[in-house]
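Question (not urgent): is this output format expected?
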Amino acid sequence: MRLIERYVISEVCRPLLAMVGILTFIFASYSSERYLAEAANGTLALSVVLDIVYYKVLIALEVLVPVALYVAVVLSLGRLYHDTEMTAIAASGVSPLRLYKAILLIALPVAIAVACLSLYGRPWAYDDAYRLEQQSKTDLDVNHLQAERFNVNEDNGRMILAKHIEPDSGALKDVLIYDSGAERAHLFRARQALITDPNPEDPVLSLEQGTAYSLERQGSRDQTMLFKDMTLHLAPVAQTAEYRRKAAPSSALAASSALSDQAELQWRQTRGITTLLLALFAIPLSYTAPRKGRFARMLPVTAAFALVFYASDICRSMVGNGSLPLFPGMWLIPILMTLALLVAIRRDVGKKRIRTA
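Got this back:
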């Protein structure tokens, strides 16, 4: 590796590592605040907050790393232009292709890492995070139920109110349970309820000495029943189709004929190449005229990234609903980026030097 390439790579690495660290810290802080608030409200077990935040950060790296690389290239090259170091490099007869080569050398391994994360790490993290969150978030886990308080599960609308809770035995004293259904709402009032199985896949509850109400939503055929002992198998929390797609292995998506699954697969497949193209595209965008600050180009740089990101999201939605054919599908964005990049490279090479004033 030649001197110019090593120098440019070292200049990019420092802001890249700093940006990844800062963005990760900000996202982790936001996620921690959100899940700690849920734990404080009694809807999430405190012991799993750290694990869930870890999975959420891993998922977010698919977006955070490309952003950090893109901004790092713009800032580092902008500084070189601002300090007229690019003028000195151009005066020594260095081809603009050397600059693209240097950025390619650092962007390629980052793009490969993002591709692997998107294809394999992200679905694994989604699956584990969902399973862990549901297991700890179940409304029948006495570890986070609070006495004399409406404990509401926002995922299924179920509400539990108990006058007293015995953590050791899992018994709820003087309990009121509301369970919402599509056609009927069910209300249970019991002297005691014992959580037999808090598993969110098949929650089981035993009630003693109480009254059960079945309320019809559209009609007036309500039912009332007195009971001495009752065993309830409550409806599990349903996993949304979108979450199932995000947690599905890439091989399962490839075998599926559903357009929404193919859109998710193409999203994962294009993350790596989009990361690489964004880093290379940052080179012509980073040009800063003399006597202007290194942040002078941040507005067009930000607009370019937002355009690529939202265009990718729109293409994913269009592929999912059939408005855009599977080919080019989401590959349309990398194809257009490649064409624009080739035009920029041809312009720079045609000038025979790196752009200066």
